[in-house]
Amino acid sequence: MSTSVFVNLPVADLERSKAFYAALGARIVPEFTDENAACVQWDENVFFMILRTDYFATFTDRPIAGPETGVQVMTALSRDSKEHVAETRERVLASGGGENRPPQDLGFMTQISMTDPDGHILEFMWMEPVAAEKGPEAFFAEPDHDNPEANDPYADAEEEGWPARD
Q1: Strand partners, 41
Q2: How many angstroms separate the Cα of 7 from the Cα of each of 10, 111, 115?
Q3: C-alpha span between 118 and 64 (Å, rounded)
Q4: Mean pLDDT score of the chain, rounded to an integer?
Q5: What number is the average pLDDT over the span 46-50?
């Protein structure tokens, strides 16, 4: 049996949040949605349960920490490509979300850190397949097949006028 992940988030406006997540491409699961909560399905194993804040509070005796005053969780989801990460950023901004931090491109990984309309931090990322499988060092160790000059350790020295080769 595979494991499913359910992230529970308190939200101020359930309808606004449903529209936001649907605009990002998630599916609202009607069988688990009512006036108090909605099930947001990202894929076959990843779900958000977005719950009105007062309803969310019925699941704990502890105070509810709002995202406007602090951060307790940052939820990261992978995307299919760098382009999908960029497209997701545009959808977040167009649908009432915001940017938590500027986008990052680390060579082996592209990442955006965004906020939903309630201020919950959502990160979306894509990683080069070799880095995802073997780690970032493996990605940087592989030759750049699209740019053979990048594989030549002497090319930069020669461009600077150094006699790097015998």
Answers
A1: 27, 47
A2: 10, 20, 15
A3: 13
A4: 88
A5: 97
Q: Which residues contact 61 (CB under 8 A, 6 or more apart)?
A: none
Spatial separation of the C-alpha atoms in residues 21 and 77, rounded to whole Å: 13
Give the pairing of strands 46-52 and 109-115.
unpaired
- Neighbouring C-alpha atoms within 13 Å toward the C-beta of 94: 9
**Per-residue pLDDT at 105 exceeds 60:** yes
- Write the single-letter amino acid at 68: E
- At 145 the pLDDT is 45
Angle, CA 162 vertex, CA 161 and CA 166 arms, to 5°: 125
- Tell me the pLDDT band of 143, cut-offs 50, 70 and 90: low
Number of Cβ within 10 Å of residue 113's Cβ equals 18
Return the pLDDT at 146: 57
Task: Classify the C-alpha dihedral 132-133-135-137 as positive or negative.
Answer: negative
What gap in Å lies between CA 80 and CA 88, rounded to an integer? 11
Determine the Cα–Cα distance for residues 151 and 163; give it in Å rounded to an integer: 18
pLDDT of residue 149: 54
pLDDT mean over 125-151:
74
The position carrying tokens 């990002």 is: 24
